[in-house]
Amino acid sequence: MTPEQQLRALPVVKAPDHIWYAIQAQQRNPWHWARAAAVFLALGGSALWLASRPAPSGQWIETGLTATRTIPIGSIGHVELAPQTRLRIDPNSYRMTLARGEIHATVVAPPRLFVIDTPSTTVVDLGCEYILRTDDDGNGFIKVIKGWVSLEWGDYISLVPAGASCSTRAKQGPGIPYFHDVSDSFREAVERMDTSAILSGARARDTLTLWHLLQRVPAAERPRVFDKITKLAPLPAMVSRERALQLEPETLRLWREELAWTW
Amino acid sequence: MDLVKTLLFSALAASVCHGADFSLTFGPPVAAYAEGVVVKKGVTAAVRADHCAAPHTAAISGTAEGIDKGTRKSLPLVSVETRPGVFAILANWPANQKWLLVITATCGAASTSATVGTDNEGPIRETAKTYAKKPTATEVEADLKALSK
Questions:
Q1: CA of A248 vs chain B CAs: smallest distance (Å)
Q2: What separation, in Å, do the N-terminal and C-terminal C-alpha atoms of chain A show?
Q3: ipTM summary value
Q4: How far apart are CA B119 and CA B94, in angstroms?
């Protein structure tokens, strides 16, 4: 006889009535729900606190393989840490160091107040929201969602407005920025600094890329970058070809201010 | 023949002058940036008073029109002049939505109006419309409807 057949062969016995009262009493007991709710709230609260507690200044913060964490930046915004991120907060200023991983920063503050150092650039916030990544080799990438940022490294400065991205290289600093809507071939040309390919693929909006390129190419190549920009956007009266080719700072600033209306 | 040339030149000059009327140009937040000017809130767009003989006298005012949690909202526009004739528009409305900026600008006795949609990245330039006078409520609703499509 199988176990199932043995089970079926057992006589049916009516359960004693008091067992039902006991079960109903258990179901009616509100303290069970209260205890369950208390445990749930305690667990939820702990998780929330762990995820958003103020970070200890001056110490390195690391997230695990799957953990994320949100850190308030005083009253000016917050930074979300992706998994496997290592970040340090300067105890004396709105300054952080991203050694590895990815952060999503949202900041509403006066320009230049919030700064993040990485192995390949210093990201200076100019009132915005952005995603910043750094790998173990010190190479990085920034994608700006709102406002704009300045990437600074020695003499190199790259200005990255909303809708644009920029790669950074360890010990070389920031590359040149480009808008998210460029073609794949244009993006690849920017990554390998292929001047001819960049010039041939540039649209009016890509004067952002060309204005930066002008300052990175050898002096002999500057005229053709200059000529391409002026083909895409008329040269403002206050900008002279000669001074622009000499990379005179005030001329470049005035030109950028004019070109920015097309970015 | 000289008379024809003169007439043609006069017509061309008139059209150029007409094209140089006081107008507004919209740009991304980066266009309003100026060294040393502190803007405390997030900038969502830049506006420039073009063809204004005295840019330091230019002024703008207006509203941001949009829908927040299903309710139609009209918020007064907050702006900061960062350079003569250049204004940073500060976003005082919920993020991640399209809003319509309705702007009236003056330069001396001249005035002009315009509407433009904005999103996270700044003004959506292809939605910009110029009005000779301040747009009516009906025109604003039509522009807002077109923006939400």
A1: 17
A2: 84
A3: 0.75
A4: 11
Task: Provide the angle, in degrees to the nearest 10, between the axes of the packed helices A249-259 and A207-214.
Answer: 170
Kindly report the CATH class assigned to B2-148: mainly beta
DSSP conformation class of A112? T
Whether A203 and chain B come into contact, CB under 8 Å, resolves to no
- pLDDT at site B115: 97
Strand partners, B43: B90
Q: Which candidate, B19, B47, B44, B50, places its Cα nearest to that of B29?
A: B44
* Element of type H or E holding B6: helix B2-19
| Residue in chain A nearest B45 by alpha carbon | A147
Among A157, A257, A258, A262, which would you mutate to test the B interface (most chain B Cβ atoms within 10 Å of its Cβ)? A257
pLDDT tens sequence across A189-236: 999 999 999 999 999 999 999 999 999 999 999 999 999 999 999 999
Q: pTM for this structure? A: 0.76
Residue A96's nearest CA partner among A75, A79, A77 is A79
